[in-house]
Structures are given as structure tokens and as C-alpha cells.
Specification:
Blueprint (H helix, E strand, L loop, with lengths): L1 H11 L2 H7 L2 H15 L5 E7 L4 H5 L4 H11 L10 E7 L4 E6 L9 H16 L3 H19 L15 E2 L1
Helix pairs in contact: 3-7, 6-7
Length: 166
């Protein structure tokens, strides 16, 4: 029954609903925070907001994590010079957040540290604070990146700072 409930939830969410929460002004604010954060370290942050999943993905049991890993590859977040790209993936229909970090973070940032940022964002989203949650997520990720990839050695802006809505 849970798959059918999830399927219905995904059918009911529209791109228009997402754009009401992530208005151009909110996207501008997120972009500005990503840009400012990346000035303080040499990592790369990509924010992707996906409205819903295709019914085949839901019926096959695809999790937000599995989809985030797909998006990580498609968006080429892995293709940074220092292998220090981080994807913040928001699956709107599920109110789920996943963070996928490139191999440069292996052994440096724990899964619990990334998960803490995700849970913080999800808590804000549950309360309807979409902008606040997204901004807090970028800031949380930026703090973790700055610990391990300080400003020196920046290869330039390798990923777009503006959030992508799928």
C-alpha cells in the first residue's frame, strides 16, 4: 500500500507547486549563498530540486538516495578537478533530502555529518520553511567542505551556483 500512496503523492505534486515554494527570489537567494560559500573553500556545491519521480521509478521502489546518485552522475557533480563536488538533492514530493559527495570526501566527512545537514533541512521543509531549509543546507554543507578543502587551490567555479529544478 505504501507504494500506491507514494505514487499518488507524486502524481499530485506539480512543477507549479514547486515553483511556488522555490520562487525566482528564493532561487536567487540560494544561488547567492552557494556563491558566497564557494568563495570560502575550494569545493563545489550543486543544488537540484526534483518535483517528483516517474511512476516506473516509484513502482520499482527507487529511493530518494538512489535517485540522488543518478542525478549526481547526470549533473556531472563528480567531474570536478579535486573530486570535491557535493550534490544537495531535494525530492519535493517526498520532502526528502540527500547529499551525495564526491570521492574526495571519503574518510573526511562521515555519513552522519552529511545526514545531520539533511535532517535539518527536512525539519524546516516539514514546517513549510522551504527557503530557510535550503539555505541552512547550503551553509551546513559549506561548513563541512571548508574543513577539508580550504580556499587555497580553487580551480574556479566548476558547477553552476543556481539551483536546478527538474
Amino acid at each position: 500500500m505504501a507504494r500506491w500512496q507514494r505514487l499518488i503523492r507524486h502524481w499530485l505534486i506539480t512543477r507549479r507547486t514547486v515553483k511556488k515554494r522555490f520562487t525566482p527570489e528564493v532561487l536567487d537567494r540560494i544561488e547567492a549563498v552557494v556563491n558566497a560559500a564557494e568563495a570560502s573553500h575550494c569545493g563545489e556545491i550543486e543544488v537540484v530540486i526534483e518535483t517528483d519521480l516517474h511512476e516506473r521509478a516509484i513502482l520499482s521502489g527507487q529511493t530518494p538516495r538512489q535517485r540522488a546518485i543518478e542525478v549526481f552522475g547526470v549533473a556531472r557533480v563528480w567531474d570536478t578537478e579535486a573530486n570535491n563536488g557535493v550534490l544537495i538533492y531535494i525530492l519535493f514530493a517526498d520532502h526528502a533530502v540527500e547529499i551525495v559527495a564526491d570521492r574526495g570526501f571519503n574518510g573526511l566527512v562521515t555519513a552522519d555529518e552529511w545526514a545531520h545537514v539533511c535532517r535539518r533541512m527536512e525539519a524546516d521543509f516539514r514546517q513549510g520553511n522551504w527557503a530557510q531549509g535550503a539555505l541552512a543546507g547550503v551553509q551546513g554543507v559549506a561548513a563541512l567542505i571548508a574543513k577539508h578543502f580550504p580556499e587555497s587551490g580553487r580551480a574556479g567555479n566548476e558547477l553552476p551556483d543556481r539551483p536546478i529544478i527538474l
